[in-house]
Amino acid sequence: MATLHKGFLCPPPPTLGKTITVLSIDGGGVRGIIPGIMLGYLESKLQELDGKDARIADYFDIIAGTSTGGLVTTMLSAPDENNRPLYAATDITDFYLNQCPKIFPQNSSTPITGGPKYNGQYLHDLAKKMVGHITISRTLTNVLIPAFDIKLLQPTIFKTTTAKANALMDAKLSDVCISTSAAPTYFPAHYFETQDSGGDTWSFNLIDGGVAVTNPTVLAMTNVAEEIQKRNPDFRNIEPMDCTRFMIISLGTGVEKQKEGYSAAEISSWGSMQWIFNQQTGKTPLIDIYSNASSDMVDIYASVLFHAKGVGSNYLRIQDDTLTGHATEMDNSSKENMEKLVQIGNELLKKPVSRVNLLTGKYEVVQGEGTNEEALARFANVLSNERKCRLAKQAQY
């Protein structure tokens, strides 16, 4: 799946190990800084165990990301000229601090009927500059990035496994990044075509993957089930959706739940414009609602599934539901707000591991599991041991 480089291979197949390792990253625009902090810390712990050349992609069988999470997924998994990850996880925060003010220029005004808030040109150019003509089949580990085809009215899920089998799904990573980030009202939809060796073409008319699934954790799990059904040799001897074999880190980009949203009485008189743009808050309520609902439903499902199987500790969800003010906005790239998001990320590391309360929808402390920082350190040990186990078995063949 990858090339030897200074003692490192990206993951040998899970059939050689005990655990299927999954990393999932939510959408959320500039709030991608928050999971970036988590990933930087996780990678630093892996480097303590396995050396400075260790990278996130060396340890995960699948990295899934939606919208801004799809951009992070690409940064972690796209190959550079040495066939190693394009970015270290420790570079993600600086990338956001440097690039977000240009992706989300603060002199843009929110239109009511005059088109998207941003023209997206800088993001388009940046994605092409980052990954050029690299296609999704060349990622250093399996990735999964959702978008939504507005013409077909159905999700389009870009996957390394599918791209290797079907050239028409082997899109350029730049097109995938642009598509999964094309949030309605913020960026224009993205059109592109693919072509196979026989000259057949496929057209894509895509918008943000978050309209289908903000949190792609379960999509990653079902991708494993799909590969098992296809008899992919990398996934031999694994039962579909067997939680006892999964180890998942799911990273949110923060939400606002401590403050109540809208009352039924308040929204009863809303028309289409109020749902699209709330003048009092400066937000797009419709996008906020479907984004939060999608993310929460996936988290609740995964949490219940893992606990029902008695392996709740195999699933780590890190999410901050205490965001307030400008920190809740997906496009506020002011220096003050981005520095605040860095602070929120660092503070989140120190907060205790929490899980969603199925009744209130809010996150509550899980006794006995320590802080998120300590949980990530434990997961780093599991990841390191799993990789060493696989490499030892691989050497026997």
UniProtKB/TrEMBL annotation:
Keywords: Hydrolase, Lipid degradation, Lipid metabolism, Plant defense. Pfam families: Patatin. The keyword Hydrolase applies. Coiled coil: none annotated. It comes from the Eukaryota. Belongs to the patatin family. This is Patatin.
